[in-house]
UniProtKB/TrEMBL annotation:
It holds the Pfam family CDO_I. Belongs to the cysteine dioxygenase family. CDD domains: cupin_CDO (cd10548). InterPro entries: CDO_1 (IPR010300), RmlC-like_jellyroll (IPR014710), RmlC_Cupin_sf (IPR011051). This is Cysteine dioxygenase. It catalyses: L-cysteine + O2 = 3-sulfino-L-alanine + H(+). It comes from Tetrabaena socialis. GO terms for molecular function: cysteine dioxygenase activity; ferrous iron binding. Fe cation binds at H106, H108, H190. Signal peptide: none annotated. The lineage of its organism: Eukaryota, Viridiplantae, Chlorophyta, core chlorophytes, Chlorophyceae. Keywords: Dioxygenase, Iron, Metal-binding, Oxidoreductase, Thioether bond.
Length: 239
């Protein structure tokens, strides 16, 4: 069955509300065609969605009015995650990084992950897992309010899975304001951190579908955590 003609090209969004509206339209368009969302999405649908989301994020990161700053807050002990939007199709958040702060190595639970740099610089290190698998799943643990991928459970319980997991560094990317990156679990695991310099950084992340569980890797072990946020907001999707 032939798919309908693609939707009209949107105007470059300068405000968060306009960006969210255009993102919602892009994701709903693919769902309306009967495509599931995620890294196993139909190839043509995935390519079309990736092109649309990249264009929107780049347009916003290059021309925005700085309205994201009202949601930005940095922490001394780890980077902070601020949720701006979440529905069944996608979620959007601002992550704030001080120099020296970085995420643990993590996956993206079969979701698409786009990242746009709003301010400063960030460094991405990708990894290939060369683990020796063993039976058994990692127990789940909640993130504390705030912050980082794979933070320990509030009660101090272990989230380690049995067996040793080895990671091999592969590709690195250095991104600056206006750059847009993409990753999913079929590409690599990765960690993200503030780039070189003395100034803080800020990134805008879009995950589709929203990530409900994330795996992190540290010290040869795998952990499963429930993502948390330092702050939650209800930004309205408007033109």
């Amino acid at each position: 069955v032939a798919e309908p003609i693609g939707r009209p090209q949107p105007q470059p969004p300068r405000y968060l509300g306009a960006l969210l509206l255009e993102l919602r339209t892009a994701f709903s368009y693919e769902r309306g065609l009967g495509h599931s969302l995620g890294n196993r999405q139909d190839a043509a649908s995935s390519a079309r969605l990736d092109s649309n989301v990249r264009a929107l994020l780049q347009a916003y990161s290059c021309t925005n009015t700085g309205d994201w700053r009202q949601y930005a807050e940095w922490g001394d002990h780890s980077y902070l995650r601020h949720l701006l939007w979440c529905d069944e199709e996608f979620e959007v958040m601002v992550l704030c990084w001080k120099p020296g702060q970085a995420s643990r190595v993590h996956n993206h639970a079969d979701s698409h992950c786009w990242l746009a740099v709003l301010d400063g610089k960030v460094h991405e290190q990708q990894y290939r897992r060369i683990a020796r698998e063993q039976d058994g799943a990692a127990p789940e643990a909640p993130w504390p309010p705030g912050c980082e991928h794979g933070a320990p459970a509030a009660d101090g319980s272990s989230t380690e899975a049995p067996g040793d997991i080895e990671l091999e560094p592969t590709r690195t990317n250095d991104l600056t304001a206006g750059d847009v990156g993409y990753i999913n679990d079929l590409i690599a695991l990765h960690s993200i951190g503030a780039g070189d310099g003395e100034e803080p950084s800020c990134t805008l992340h879009v995950y589709s579908p929203p990530i409900r569980r994330v795996k992190t890797y540290e010290g040869g072990k795998e952990a499963v955590s429930v993502p948390g946020f330092f702050s939650r907001h209800s930004v309205v999707a408007t033109p």
